């Protein structure tokens, strides 16, 4: 596919006043054809400008579409950048810088880095979580182009270092706290085997060592119940979005309601998703579920959730490119218009974590996070340019 491409020299990329001309822009009110979009100091100032004022660097976007940048509330594919093989780890600057480029190549401009805070050693340990947070909020601010935020996936059975986690919540470095429980319940052989295989893929532990870990953690998990309620209270105190994870019974949904959960991640079926929405939670599901044709765990599919109107947002989960492709797939399946579907990866995620006053839409006063893409092309290779707060941070050749 050939189309006109964005032409920007280095002075334009660093300029605070940019006019994107001739673009078809997806706004909250629908498409604006052949629009001129003005950006100043990293924010949209005018969406349908008739005459470009003096002092603006001009970008020819004729033949391209402007889409709001993708907001990914839950993504952990970065783990494979850090640990591509069991027990094989790479330095964070290499792994996370590489991951940053993969995010941009998939159209993701705001990324809630989903860091697991577990009792496991290695990749999902508290030590690894600490190093990741320190890197992202330290050196990462200078070298990462995607807007990174911290999503802590706290395992209920992890009782060690409780005060440190409380301190993180109080410091303002965490934006989403999700409550996870991946520990297999006693007697559930299917869950036990699945968890065993999962740990083997991200560690060099033997089966015997994993089994011993499960036994030790199970014996003490009750000690974490009081800690958990304190974490929930701290999340509400500091305005941190609280998420449940994999609710698969009415009792778990009722507990999530009691905790005033804002985001219900991956509810198991339509009824539980509907109950989550009834108490005000936004239902979040994984885009790979849609792209692959169903849940890899055999639970509710995204297509089923859309048909029953119980889906609010999509996330990358474990595969970034799926998040770009998913809105095109929903349109292809006749389940949603493209405009509605794109809101599942932009404005609706922004609303669910209370950043819609800054992110998620092409509208005056909001951050200029957007993609310039070739029209009607469902693969990430359609992306010509990626902008974060008005700065072009990635550019690609499109055929």
From TrEMBL:
Tagged with keyword Flavoprotein:
no
Give the matching SUPFAM superfamilies.
Composite domain of metallo-dependent hydrolases, Metallo-dependent hydrolases
- Gene Ontology molecular functions: hydrolase activity
Describe the location of the Amidohydrolase-related domain by residue ranges. 101-379
Q: Which UniProt keywords apply?
A: Hydrolase
Write down the EC number.
3.6.1.63
InterPro entries associated with the record: Amidohydro-rel (IPR006680), Metal-dep_hydrolase_composite (IPR011059), Metal_Hydrolase (IPR032466), Metallo-dep_Hydrolase (IPR051781), PhnM (IPR012696)
Give any Pfam family that matches: Amidohydro_1
PANTHER family on file: ALPHA-D-RIBOSE 1-METHYLPHOSPHONATE 5-TRIPHOSPHATE DIPHOSPHATASE
Tell me the protein's name.
Alpha-D-ribose 1-methylphosphonate 5-triphosphate diphosphatase
Lineage at the top is: Bacteria, Bacillati, Cyanobacteriota, Cyanophyceae, Nostocales
